[in-house]
Write a structure and sequence with these properties.
CATH architecture of the largest domain: Sandwich
Largest sheet: 8 strands, mixed
Distance between the termini: 19 Å
Shape: elongated
Number of helices: 2
Number of strands: 10
CATH topology of the largest domain: ATP Synthase, domain 1
Radius of gyration: 16 Å
Oligomer: single chain
CATH class of the largest domain: Mainly Beta
């Protein structure tokens, strides 16, 4: 029995896989592995890597907070912000990091300081995830629908 996985941000649904084998979630209390028929859970997520596995392939996402609703046959990730590891570029990471560091050095107000600190944390997570994906010994294969040949 597979498990249906959806990753949704405030803007749009970024991932939908109806036949996943496993989901690894960066919960605030620690990393959770979720298999089909998991007990229902509603929990918050920390900044971290979300991994969806299907038939020996996997897709990774940088998750920047949110909540996850786990049911026996479905996992719905409601992320504050999320991006696929395939969409993360070193140029974008460095630009975000430089912008955040500049704001922190300028001594902006508390709200902008908080935003800059969060942007810096996001850039650091994206950097770690990009390095992890690039440094794997075996190639990470993106989960695609063989009939359509595109990302789900």
């Amino acid at each position: 029995m597979p498990i249906h996985v959806e990753v949704v941000t405030q803007e749009k649904k970024i991932f939908d896989e109806p036949n996943a084998d496993m989901v690894i979630i960066p919960a605030t209390e620690g990393v959770m592995g979720v298999l089909p028929r998991h007990a229902p859970v509603l929990t918050t997520m920390a900044f971290g890597e979300l991994i969806v596995r299907k038939a020996g392939r996997e897709e990774s996402f940088a998750i920047y907070g949110g909540v996850v609703d786990i049911r026996p046959d479905k996992v719905v990730v409601l992320a504050d912000l999320a991006e696929s590891s395939y969409d993360i570029t070193n140029e974008a990471i460095e630009a975000a990091r430089a912008s955040a560091e500049k704001l922190l050095q300028e001594g902006v107000g508390p709200e902008m300081n908080r935003e800059a600190a969060l942007a810096l944390r996001r850039a650091e997570l994206a950097t770690r995830l990009a390095r992890k994906v690039q440094g794997r010994v075996s190639p990470v294969m993106r989960i695609v629908d063989e009939d359509e040949g595109g990302k789900k």
